[in-house]
Write a structure and sequence with these properties.
13% strand; 58% helix; two-stranded antiparallel ribbon; five-stranded antiparallel sheet; 328 residues
Length: 328
Amino acid sequence: MENKIEIYKSSDDKIELQVNLDNETVWLNRQQISSLFARDIKTIGKHINNVFDEGELQQTSTVAKFAIVQKEGKRTIEREIEFYNLDVIISVGYRVKSTQGTQFRQWATQRLKDYLVKGYAINEKQLRASQEQLATLKQSIRLLENVVQQTQLTSGEAVGLLKVVTEYSHALDLLDQYDHQRLVIPEIKKEPLHKITYQEAIDQIQLWRKKQKAGKLFGNEKDQSFNSSLQTIYQTFNGKDLYPGINEKAANLLYFIVKNHSFTDGNKRIAAALFIYFLDKNKKLYKADGSKMIADNALVAITIMIAESKTEEKEIMIKLIVNLMSAN
């Protein structure tokens, strides 16, 4: 439980204290205990010493030092002050026979219960998120294994698969960062977007067919699904993009073109080429050092993985592509 400050007020509103909640207990300094029980500091100090001298409580586990900012004349000084946990506070309350002790104990117990329940809920949420990330990683590796087993790969494609595995393994580091509450998930910034039109895409495909001498079947549309693939990545709902961010749009564009088999020939090549074209038009193709966001052989490997994947694995494929681009 992180260090927090709660305000305690007595039922008659005569006492008001700033109470530290930390390490699953509450803490007060001698001055505050003196105010709580309406006894002078010297008397409180004597009772605290007796609690430890008589072996009722161990000093090492019930006393902590917190930095406190104090006004001393015109100066503001930060000093470390000894604070005592709830066990010590209750013990002193019994010794001075103060009715405030019972009221404070009830208040403190409820505050601690509230924070522990809240903390459990947060930890449970973090655990679920970590488990989901681990499941994503395992599923991605299984997809890679399926491609290796079912497809005759060239050496370049094999290198690409290895690169995908290596780069995506950083998800394990994300798990560690999440467990230690160091993971920062960046917000998707609103960026200028170049939308590829249907005609623009067709012109590019014809240009590639001519340049590569790919034949008349390359880029020959079988139905209207190619136009649908292009339009889908720009869809909105209630004014919000269904696929927020350029990387997510690019990943879905690659996936839809591969899976829809819109062309008689060249579906994977067209998908990969338009993926690159879309990123380039949106100034996302290259990293700061001038290298491509995703290397050519890694892109080939990902495209093969999409082709070999099952429909129900779409989400994991999109996560894999976006994750790789984010990592780079």
